[in-house]
Amino acid sequence: MSTVAHAHDSHAASHGADAHDDGKPHIHVTSPLLLLGVFGALLVLTVLTVAVTSIDLGPLNIWIALFVAVAKGGLVVMYFMHLRWDSYYNGIILIVSLFFIALFIGIAILDTKEYQPNMEAPHQGQVLPVQDAR
Amino acid sequence: MSADAGTIPYKEPGMPRPQHVVDLHDNYLNHSKGIKSWLLTLDHKRIGIMYMVGILSAFFLGGLFAILLRTMLWSPVVMVPGNEQIASSSYRLYNHFFTLHGAVMVFMFIIPAIPAILGNFILPLQLGAKDVAFPRLNLLSLYLYATGALFFSFILLSGVLHAAFNITLPGGFGLDTGWTFYTPYSSSKAQGNVVAATLGAFVLGFSSILTGVNFIASIHTLRPKGMTWFRMPLFLWALYATSIIQILATPVLAITLLLLAAERSIGIGIFDPAMGGDPVLFQHFFWFYSHPAVYIMILPAMGVISEVIVAFSRKHVFGYNFIALSSIAIALLGFLVWGHHMFVSGQSPLANVIFSLLTFSVAIPSAVKVFNWLATLYKGDIRLKTPMLYALGFMMLFTIGGLTGLFLGALAVDVHLTNTYFIVAHFHYVMMGSMLFAFLAGMYYWWPKMFGKMYNETVGVIASIIVFVGFNTAFFPQFIAGSLGMPRRYASYPIQFVGYHRASTIGAYTMGLGLVLVGLNWAHALLRGKKAPSNPWGSNTLEWRTPSPPPHDNFPDAPVANDPYDLHGWEYDKATENWVYNEHAAGATAGSH
Amino acid sequence: MSNAETNVAGTALLDDPHAEHGGNGHDPNLAHHFDTPEQQYTSAKLGMWIFLGTELLMFGGLFCAYSVYRHNHPEVFVYAHKFLDKWLGAVNTVVLITSSLTMAWAVRASQMNKSRLLTVLLILTIIGGYGFLGIKSIEYHQKYEHGLWFGGSNIFSESYIEKVGPKEFEKSVEHLEHTTMEPSHAGGEAHAGEARGGDAHSEVIGQANGEAHGEAVAGHEAVAGAAATSQPTLKTAAGFSDPNAGLPDEAKIKPSFESPAGLAPEVAAADPHHHHLSFEELALRDKKNLATFFNIYFFMTGLHGVHVVVGMSLIYWVLLRSVGPRGRLYVWPLGLASVGVFLLYLIIITHYMMLAVWGGAVLLFSLLWLVRNLTIANSVEEGHGEFSRDYFTPVDLVGLYWHLVDLIWIFLFPLLYLIH
Prior knowledge:
B: 4 strands; 2% strand; globular
């Protein structure tokens, strides 16, 4: 399958270049080697993220898991979803979306963290001092 | 900016053509016939008109219940002494009334009104395009709106019928949570059919998202030759900013409503303190959408005002770049201030301070707009036609609404004012006073283009004055009542507030009367209106360069854009009551600058 | 031109080639309101990315709910996630990544005019989707069997405890811990067969530890909220309590504190790094919140599953357009069979296993037969499909959607299954 695809690779690429002036879309054809490489990397990262859970690194575990997930997501977005060769606008949309998600989660956690002691106090039988409103 | 006009070759493809030849034969209204040709149309203009029918019906429904609410509040006492039965059922009825009024107005009128009606109709025309980028998506969005709106209003109305006459429809107990669906009331205590209502709002939200997707893609890819980003009409900038909010915020509403439905039906526990959840988190979720949604309501209104003020001041807009970029700034800053709805909801003091500070920052781009409009008016050749009257009304009411918003953004003052009529007055000044006035300004302004008929100017002017007076009578007393401590959402009130409430009710009826007059004027214009010329106001944006109403494909030839606010060269022709473009005059005046 | 606008057949919403052939409509794939195919392609792609942005934000809200809940109740997540089978989750990750690869390759095939390869790759991608949902439904089935379903059907939920009473509840939790909880360090031991072994084992231990019942009862009451003051909830040396607590003959069972033989000590010995949290060790408020973990799990994976189904339907629609008229004769029944597969999965979840096996066999044969015929038909009429290097937008857009589904799972997997 991959050899057949290889044979036509250069042709498609040159076609993409030719199509520049006749209003045809500029297309980027991903090479099979790259696709398989990304696939392999994703598998390796999956194994890594499962393996790392059996090592106790304390709070670091969640960050490693997230870091690996971000790396995998980045590979999928850049290569499988062609963003590397795509219009900048599409990338901006992705980044803005992620930024707003981060903003939302960040502020929600910040807030809930701040008032959590007030919520838990009754359970622990403690009475918190009245907050100084200055 | 006006100096550019000389260097850009001005093409006027649609204009020199004799009007009657084009008009009689092909326009989007008579292009094809039969109900099917409307229901399955992909034409953005027809979709806009169908939206108009739906959204105006929603406005009528919401308005009717506003009047009913105010009627109930005429008397300070709902309770009949000694008859608890009547009292509790009246209170329930009142809850259903204000929920219906709020939910219908917000989800079915204010949010979609300008983008879905005027945006759909005008955006491709201002772009000089034949349609929006995704016409089928546009039609789907209309059907989602229709489905959601019918379903949602059915649920709400069932609640009213149940509370008023004890009639149980399949919609059950309806909804009495207010349009905000706050947990834990909505998730565990409310009697109503909350799950069904959330599904209705969910579908309406999808309609809004699809419109946003369509507009952004259209503005990116369909701009004609000569229209760079900073030569776009300001209405398009406003719609672009609105669409950004629609696509970034509305999905969060969708997930909020799904979580609420799950919370209520199976008790997933995310918002339920008994299961470790956090009811304040619901408010974070809700306002992460609903605060930006306020800007979904107001930004397109600002876009309309920019267009109208230029056209009736006969002057190039002042500070184009500032108005354009302030729309984007408002859209983005609008996402950072949602917590100011939660100052007294148990939000942490740290978040309160952050949100309070950020709230003040939104005032900057808003004020930038207002000052630029004022500067545009300054030394302009102002014509007080109906759209302009509404636009001027907008500027006054928006300023009041915006400044009182600053009171509420200040933490300490908010503790006193929140949940009083001060809030009610504030957001009615912004949503009703500003958004509705801009909507009416836009409808009058583009009415000739949409239907090819002129409305009656005298009636229009009279109605606008009645609406303005009625509005202020209805809502200004609420500022005072609120600052004196009259709480919102109460069916009965202490006797000392009776004056304020009665003034409010009289104002509401007055405004209702004015709006009926507006409706009659439009109906008359449709049936008996004088034929509209292609450019009755002498504007230079592209939609005025095609006949009224536009042909099916919008433009006989693809137009080339220049500076949209360069009004040089448009001269009034008394015989046709039309503004025509005089290339010679344009060159002469442009040269003289 | 007059009737053209009534043509809204099909579901291509972002990609709109057949809407109208007016004006410069020499290219059959170019909609009337675009000037060039490039403009149309760019618009479609931009529209799709915006839509993906909205999908991300929707899931972002869900991740926010997750994060806040986990942040406030870390112990709940640490304890409850062990009931999930991380190996099934990992396999599913691989399945979805593989189907992402075939989808990306399908886009490449369409860009290179390889219509037969395109068809094959699309079918492979759909099979990947079936695989994912199949494994998911086995997982859901296990949860259903073990009473770890959502809402009131979860044994940790308040309504369940009220229904069965605190003693019965404690017993089932303990049973559950021994049968399903995965010792996270030890690899794939928690699969069905192993679990049964563990099951038998746990009963023995239970007998051996009969003495612990007094303390266990105290624990029950605290959970049910019957006892307002929290009595100290002791635990046996083995870290779990008496399954026979409350039975009439419990007194006859001999205590055996000294030699807590059984699975748990072995587990503890096998991994000195780990302190395994047991139900008894959880704080009272965490005990009451356990059901929420499963609700979050089902909500997140369920919404993701809906997206998988939508993605598969879209791929199916592309498949339909990628073949010629003869091939379509086989693709249509393939769609029907797919609906059958979805129904089958629902049946698997609600545990009519035998029915599912027979139905599955019948479906499998019909699917294979259809795919075989499709391949034959396709080899005869190569190039009869709609896609070529000049027009492959639908394949591209559906591919983007499918990758997004993959992307979300990439985050769901570690966040739900791999909690430390």
